[in-house]
Amino acid sequence: MAPSSNFVHIMVVLSLVLILGVIVPKGEARRRAFFVFGDSLVDNGNNNYLLTTARADSPPYGIDYPTRKPTGQQLGTVSTLPYLSPELKGRKLLIGANFGSAGIGILNDTGVQFINVVKMHTQLDYFEEYQQRLTTLIGGSRTRRLVNKALFLMTVGGNDFVNNYYLVPSSSRSRQYPLPHYVKFLICEYRKHLQRLYDLGARRVLVTGTGPLGCAPAELATRSTNGECSMELQRGAALYNPQLEQMLQRLNRKLGSDIFIAANTAQMHKDFVTNPTAYGFVTSKVACCGQGPYNGIGVCTTLSNLCPNRDLYVFWDPFHPSEKANRLIVEQIMSGSTRYMKPMNLSTILLLDAST
User: Fold this and answer.
1) Can you point out the beta strands (E) in the chain?
2) Where are the coiled-coil regions (predicted)?
């Protein structure tokens, strides 16, 4: 899950940003900053400023932008900019920032093959630096208030399986830990990141789980004989996601408030991966862009097979959901039941926060 597709995967982030001011009743809406942390599912351009192989700044990425360019980052005045963008300065800091970086994971050794990415601990360091920059602009008390009232999105974890534990047969981490112990280790390390985020002022944090890792076209192409999902990767996700949710519940109890909101993206993905036609897709096995079996080999380039209608495919490239799939995920984040969102969905959060 390395390349960061600025036109499809960031849809989750941009959709959230663009609706923040319109979900609550008119007159009660308030502007709030939005901060994003994580991997390629939310990286909207930070890796384009780095010397790394984990980038998606060339065609056909961006094909559905109005500009048809792969690095279009300005989608209106409310969209968050990549933290490494030189355009993120002055009043634009008030909107928030995106710290995501394709290829990273919970662990520092995840994604080392991509050479130069913004590890999770560095993303949090940058957030601390961001607050220092904002304090210079608006003062300490206003900065703390902006951060406390902001919405945060944290999306990380999948790479710790596909680009670490299962990256190669007999990987270093798989020799070090049996899978159940590895998952517990991931959850323990993740908790440290979330605690630090809280210590830095975050008070409303959406935390997504992993999708059906073994069902991505890349895994079907390399691990499947007849189109079935990789049972081993699915086992990893099945162990990880419930423990993530339980950890968030424990952390909330410790903090005495519903700080962390669990988004069951595994179930959201499963709905249309197992029954794609019910959601208007023609396939959940073949990627729109790629090559080889299921278009799941390598990365998406101008030489790849490219579908004419992206809305008919669950997956855009070998690893990442399409824009339509991400829209469905956002809909569940906004209004989904406790099957998908615990303890509450984002619409409920925004209504509650508007009344305080």
Assistant:
1) 34-38, 96-98, 151-155, 205-208, 260-263, 289-290, 305-306, 341-342
2) none
C-alpha distances in angstroms, 309 versus 3, 11, 21, 235, 288?
21, 17, 31, 32, 8
Q: What is the pLDDT of residues 207-240, one digit of tens each?
A: 999 989 999 999 999 999 889 999 999 999 999 9
Number of domains forming the structure of the chain: 1
Residue 16 lies inside a defined structural domain of this protein: yes
Catalytic residue numbers, as ranges: 40, 317, 320
pLDDT in the model for residue 355 = 80
Residue 69 lies in a domain: yes
Identify the domain containing residue 55 by its residue range: 11-216+224-267+335-354
Residues 133-156: what's their mean pLDDT? Answer: 96
Distance CA 7, CA 40 (A): 12
Two structure tokens written together for 232: 């081993």
CATH number at residue 186: 3.40.50
Would you say 147 and 140 are in contact if contact means Cβ atoms under 8 Å apart? no
In a domain, 252, yes or no: yes
- pLDDT level of residue 52 (50, 70, 90 thresholds): low
Strands of the 96-98 sheet, one edge to the other: 96-98, 34-38, 151-155, 205-208, 260-263, 341-342
End-to-end Cα distance, the chain:
39
Q: What pLDDT is attached to residue 164? A: 96
Q: Answer whether residue 179 is part of any domain.
A: yes
Cβ-Cβ contacts under 8 Å for 310 (sequence gap 6 or more):
8, 63, 64, 288, 316, 322, 323, 324
- DSSP SS3 for 316: coil
68: tokens are 């048809």
Could you please report the per-residue DSSP string of 243-303? HHHHHHHHHHHHHTS--EEEE-HHHHHHHHHHSGGGGT-SBSSS-SEEBSGGG-BS---TT
The number of residues in the chain equals 356
**pLDDT bracket for residue 71 (50, 70, 90):** very low
Q: Average the pLDDT over 137-154 and give the result.
A: 96
